[in-house]
Here is the input.
Amino acid sequence: MNNKRSGPGWWRVAVQAIGAVLCGVSLGSPAWAQQGAGPAAASATTASTTAMAAPRPAATTIGEKACIGCHGQENRHFTETLHAKAFRANPRNDRERQVCEACHGPGSLHAKNTKDKSLIIGFTKGWNTPLEQQNESCLSCHQGGNRLHWPGSTHAGNQVGCADCHNPMQKVGNSPLLARATINETCASCHQQQRAEFNKRSHMPLPEGKMSCVDCHNPHGTTTKPLLKADSVNFVCYACHAEKRGPMLWEHAPVRENCVNCHSPHGSNHDKLLVASRPQLCQQCHSPSVGHPGQFYRNDQTAAAGQLLGGTTSQRVVGRSCQNCHTQIHGSNHPAGARFQR
Here is the structure.
């Protein structure tokens, strides 16, 4: 037979080949490597492999004084903040006693090599610390409460970090630890469309300082997509407009469905924050019908009819338009209020 394994020494050759592979010597290596003629070279290769696989030593805490030695300006700003006063005057645990390193992590390796940005947690855009690591540093203490629904919220899904809205290193305004002077300015730095709406003729009293964005929204997450502080738009509005809540004997369908069917929640150029002027707003649903035509543009149904066409001025156009008669448009409790006239 021509089978090589039929010879009496084939198993010795196989064992030697397996042993060579396990010892790190391939069958294609030079003769001196297979014969063990180069122990120094083999030792150098093993040392190089071990050095490459050696893990980085764990960082240790070095204390607040070591941080202040380099970061004097940051310390002057940080001293005014709520975090500094709490960590220094009344720390609740060992982590808060670390002050700087409570949020930035142990700083021993950073002190030795300040150019390696991976050795410490940074909260600025240029430091390039992963957003998940930044937020985890904050959420490890600030859990539950208003932040219960942060995972999966609109802000979290759009990669918004805690440091985008908060500045724990400096007291910027009256509100603690915010990136801007007020809550409204902080929100408006991203939400430019809503900022423009608040500057329209009819708006919620937010620019006047009588309310803020967090009166209606929870920026840290809720069960609703627009981060509302209630389960629906209507329940947010009812918090201030309790008289519209009902229950009503006669209910207006679009009112019960959603307040924003008729109102713009942030601002509008029409009165009462309406999405359109009256009577056009009403006519979006109430088309001409038998007995009470909805159109107002006939010859005798315009505001100027009395002067130009000899007709009578229509009350459907002037004043509050349709609401001149249908005054209880949000609903009526009167037995005769089926048409919201009482």
